[in-house]
Design brief:
This protein is mainly alpha-helical. The chain has 6 helices and 3 strands; from the N terminus they run ααβααββαα. Strands 1-3-2 form a 3-stranded antiparallel sheet.
Length: 160
């Protein structure tokens, strides 16, 4: 195996381990709203928190689901008073969605829990390790085309 292949294998293994950790953090952070929303529904809430009022068909594209799946998710969230879904007054064939204040509260609460857990882990790292992590994550995000920023990502995964 070449040196480059060895490097790629080591990096891939490290990222897989990191993603396992982050998925666990994401799952635990949803404990704050257990029974209220699923992970997929939470992703929809995060997209709405990021973009504001959004067309149902646009939401389906962003989440990578069929429009009928997005509609069922939106209906469940509307029944829970987390989103408002209504007909677009400019095009009656389209549905628009937006967060309710309770939906915003759910996004903020889950994101705060996630941020706190990640901050506790990062606090156990040295300043040098923190700088290396920031550089590595920025490079990783850039290579993936992930937009920089503090707020939730448009695809529905909050920054931490």
């Amino acid at each position: 195996m070449s040196e480059r292949a060895d490097q790629l294998s080591a990096v891939t293994s490290a990222v897989l381990t990191g993603t396992r950790l982050l998925v666990g953090i994401a799952a635990r952070s949803l404990g704050a709203v257990a029974g209220q929303v699923t992970l997929s529904q939470f992703r929809m809430l995060v997209v709405l928190a990021t973009l504001g009022e959004t067309k149902l068909v646009t939401m389906a594209e962003l989440l990578g689901v069929n429009p009928s799946t997005a509609m069922r998710m939106a209906d469940r969230l509307a029944a829970a008073d987390l989103v408002v879904r209504e007909v677009n007054p400019l095009n009656r064939r389209e549905s628009l969605m937006r967060l309710t204040p309770e939906g915003r509260h759910v996004v903020d609460e889950v994101t705060a829990r996630r941020r706190d857990e990640i901050a506790a882990i990062v606090a156990r790292m040295s300043p040098e390790q923190c700088r290396a992590l920031v550089a590595a994550m920025n490079a990783f995000n850039e290579a993936a085309g992930e937009p920089p920023g503090e707020g939730p990502h448009p695809m529905g995964w909050p920054d931490a």
